[in-house]
Amino acid sequence: MNSNYKVIGTFEYVADAELLKTRLEAEGIPVLLKDANIMQAEPFIATAIGGVKVMVPGENEALARSLYDEVRAYAQDDAGNPLKCPNCQAARMERYLRPKGVWYRLFPFLEPRKYVCLECGMISKP
Length: 126
Hints:
2 domains; three-stranded antiparallel β-sheet; 6 strands; globular
């Protein structure tokens, strides 16, 4: 794989990554989906491998991020309200899929859900 590719998004489901890939390719941006095949074969290990990564060439990163921001769906609570960052109160939270430690890599379903704020970068639980 070309080392010039940059990750612009990580997804828990392959279908979500495919939707973004389709949108970016419609604009002429080449896209790679890292770990998509693994996720299709074993969908229960999403947390263990960090989800499906959508990658674009470095020179297309800025345009790809702006297109992603146009179609991005942010995290919501059970009532459908957007989750707000406890630090900066921004309503731009996404699921955080980077487990720490061997225990959660072996048993990813035991890891509590975490979210990352796209404004300040704070990682929090709902």
